[in-house]
Amino acid sequence: MLYPIGWGYFKWRTGMTWDETVLFAVPFVIGDVIKCALVALVATAVHRAYPWILPAKPSNQASAVAEPAAASGPEANEALATA
Predict the structure, then answer these.
(1) pTM
(2) What per-residue confidence (pLDDT) applies to 54?
(3) 60/2 Cα distance (integer angstroms)
(4) Quick one: which of 22, 29, 33, 68 is 20 to 30 A from 11 by CA?
């Protein structure tokens, strides 16, 4: 979204044609795409190494299954026996 705005300003200030402006800016776009890919790889690796930093949202099924398992003691045994 910001590229067209910046390119338009650059074209206006330098007096270049659109073709010249785009050719001048393409190396920056390629670099930004590479940086985005590297950030995605690093973020994935960090999330795998430290999953508690950004926990996944539990689905309705997973939270319903996890609730009885969280209980412990005689109350939990009675609840499981009557279920």
Answers:
(1) 0.53
(2) 79
(3) 39
(4) 33
